[in-house]
Design goal:
143 residues; 9 helices
Length: 143
């Protein structure tokens, strides 16, 4: 479960900045859907907390001054369930993700990410300086 403050944003501009195949752990298609993952990763744009909530990427958006209290309340509510039932539901949900290929997807993407580190594009970006790439990513995510 993910709770974000209303001033939070999400960005993953590495295709626009570091010449790599997204971050090492590619959960985006699982938490936002395939089409939005394409747009998010290929353009590097930011998502506001409200937009992340609307597409199902996060569970709740709360005012910053309520973030800790709301997160604690959610955790306590989840923890108040019967322990064995909670354990079984969590296990079942993880199995659903596994049946859908979640672990294989993560492993496959990690391979692609590592491969992107040996490309000429990455070498050129690295030679220009990682800081310059990070700045490009910040600029891309604001567009």
């Amino acid at each position: 479960m993910v709770v974000a403050s209303n001033d939070a944003f999400f960005a993953d501009p590495v295709c626009q900045s570091l010449a790599t195949a997204a971050v090492e752990v590619l959960v985006h298609p699982w938490v936002m859907g395939l089409r939005m993952a394409h747009e998010f990763l290929l353009t590097g744009r930011r998502l506001s907390a409200e937009e992340a909530y609307r597409i199902g990427m996060i569970n709740r958006v709360v005012p910053r001054d309520r973030l800790e209290a709301e997160t604690t309340e959610l955790a306590e509510k989840a923890a108040a369930g019967y322990p064995f039932a909670v354990k079984l539901v969590k296990r079942s949900l993880k199995r659903v993700a596994e049946i859908q290929g979640f672990r294989t997807s993560l492993q496959s993407h990690f391979d692609a990410h590592q491969l992107s580190h040996v490309t000429d594009e990455y070498r050129r970006m690295r030679d220009q300086g990682i800081a310059a790439g990070i700045t490009r990513g910040k600029d891309a995510s604001r567009k």
